[in-house]
Amino acid sequence: MTRFAINGRWLEVDVPPDTPLLWVIRDHLRMTGTKFGCGAGLCGACTVHLAKDANAAAEAIFSCQTEVSEVEGKYVTTIEGLSSDNSHPLQKAWIAEQVPQCGYCQSGQIMRAAALLKKSPQPTREEIVKAMKTNLCRCGTYNRIIAAVERASRGA
């Protein structure tokens, strides 16, 4: 059994310790906002936040490359936990900038951007580009993604 908090709720899962966190989130917990993209940590569709405790800064991680045993006693946040009513500034900015096309990568993009804004509330364009490099968008909405992160950082 592995015990961890997900979106503020503590739970235990009975899966092999080497099970990727992605499959625990999607298959066992039925939270499908976190997407399977490549399974190799190359696309970012599976990005979630991980913090060692409730007060620690969360980092964006690839859940497809994180074994569930690595989150024992830690705090995981998925796109479902970012805000309960889609009121997070990034979610609003994503809509305002009309970022999604197919939408598949967007939860991972938003989670990566949220981690950036926690560390650097008003990043430069270069910092945004650098931080978002790990997340791919097959539709090519990179300019809209950057604009949405800039909008959210301004509080617009």
Structure, explained:
- The chain is an alpha+beta fold and 156 residues long.
- 35% of the residues lie in helices and 14% in strands.
- It contains 6 helices and 5 strands, in the order E-E-H-E-E-E-H-H-H-H-H.
- It has helices spanning 21-28, 79-82, 89-96, 106-119, 125-132, 142-154; strands at 2-6, 9-13, 47-51, 59-62, 75-77.
- A 5-stranded mixed beta sheet has the order 2-1-5-3-4, with helices on both faces.
- Helix 3 (89-96) packs across helix 6.
- The chain is globular, with a radius of gyration of 15 Å.
- The mean pLDDT is 95.
Q: Which spans of ≥5 residues are poorly predicted at pLDDT below 50?
A: none
Main beta-sheet strand count, sense and barrel state: 5 strands, mixed
Task: Give the neighbour order of strands across the main sheet.
Answer: 2-1-5-3-4
Intertermini distance: 43 Å
Count of DSSP-assigned helices = 6
Radius of gyration: 15 Å
Class per helix and strand makeup: alpha+beta
In round numbers, the mean pLDDT is 95
Task: Based on the model shown, name its key terms.
156 residues, alpha+beta, five-stranded mixed beta sheet, 5 strands, globular
Secondary-structure map with pairings?
Layout: E1 2-6, E2 9-13, H1 21-28, E3 47-51, E4 59-62, E5 75-77, H2 79-82, H3 89-96, H4 106-119, H5 125-132, H6 142-154
Parallel strand pairs: 1-5
Antiparallel strand pairs: 1-2, 3-4, 3-5
Helix pairs in contact: 3-6
Brief write-up:
With 156 residues, the chain is α+β, with helices and mostly antiparallel strands. The protein is built from 6 helices and 5 strands; from the N terminus they run ββαβββααααα.
